[in-house]
Amino acid sequence: MADALRRFFLSDKPSYSHVADLETRFNPKITFAKLQRYKPTVKDVCHYSFLGSVFLFVFVANPAPWTYKILFYCFLALLFIIPVTSQFFFNALPILTWLALYFTSSYFPASHRPKITVKVLPAVETILYGDNLSDILATSTNTFLDILAWIPYGLFHFGAPFVVAAILFLFGPPTVLRGYAFAFGYMNLFGVIIQNAFPAAPPWYKILYGLESAHYGMHGSPGGLARIDHLLGINLYTSGFSNSSVIFGAFPSLHSGCATMEALFFSYCFPKLRPIFIGYVCWLWWSTMYLTHHYFVDLVAGSVLSYIIFQYTKYTHLPVDTSLFSRWSYASVETYDMDKMNPLRADANDVENVPLSNLELDFELNSMDEASRTPSIFDGPTSTSRSSATSNTSLAEFQHDYAGASPRLNKPRFE
């Protein structure tokens, strides 16, 4: 079995390429040596400072005994020091920060938290779309629709991030999983921060309590998932949503954000399957409103948040070429060069930026004899045509700039 997998994934691996290799050593000295050579950029400083400040806030705000918190942070530090684990945990730091903040949110004192809004989201829904779409979709329910809505919302949502990560690791470029962890973690982290700063009641609250004022002592509700608990004879969703860490976290919808982020990364790596991923997002959107967990405006906000973070991640972390079969098929990985793509940062050597006075402005007409040609005001001291000079220059620069940018040395993967 191992030999078959090795042939399947490594048969077209370039012999000279090590870009997809994983660190398998346990010696902490390797990590310390890398840290000594590491020269952080401004973005790196902002990245680690922000996540570190959130971790420090969680360390102080979480009511767990100090001994347990210190032991946990020491264990986490150990995972960052050991090379075989640090290659994953350094990249997963945004996800770990999001989880730490999320599970600490329920312990924030109510006296220091903003007032819960009950009327804003249904009012915005009515203003923008003319009616409450969640109420309309949840009016008529049956067992078939309950199961159809439960599959993406109650099952796929919790398992999809791991499945997406595994597929990207195996069939995406070597660094795409790093970008996915960055984008997925930051999207959820910003979402939880917004939910805590702008607590809003979901549709199930309006069904149970109308427009009465809400308070932080209330328990949550599974909404339409209570019917799934009853159908399966379990108490999983009722118990989980009743004691959620962020009960009034309707806006933005992180269910929508996660599904959109997964669809964006899959569409980037497997563009021919994009309609399937778009269909999955629409399926989850419908299920969240049918189960009375989100308004439509929440779903749009979650997807917009994901799209913004994905676009930033795309141009700062993701590889350009995603066409090869697996991570081991790549000879090298090239990322986007923002300086070259920035139109405000013109390259002085670019042929389009050379002043006209420096160009040779002669024209050649192949059908005419050079000696009998009527002189032109564009004639210069040489007989090289302007068109050939400029085109040759631009072509040479193009080849020089992009030679080897996309190592398509191996077979393309099935998309």
TrEMBL record:
Instruction: List locations, semicolon-separated.
Output: Membrane
The membrane-spanning stretches of this chain are 70-103, 147-171, 177-198, 263-286
Where does the record place the Phosphatidic acid phosphatase type 2/haloperoxidase domain?
A: 177-314
Q: Where is the composition biased (Low complexity)?
A: 382-394
Looking up SMART domains in the UniProt record yields: acidPPc
Query: Which keywords does UniProt give here?
Result: Membrane, Transmembrane, Transmembrane helix
What is the membrane topology noted in the UniProt record heading this document? Multi-pass membrane protein
Query: Which PANTHER family does the record match to this protein?
Result: INOSITOL PHOSPHORYLCERAMIDE SYNTHASE CATALYTIC SUBUNIT AUR1, PTHR31310
- Entry protein name: Phosphatidic acid phosphatase type 2/haloperoxidase domain-containing protein
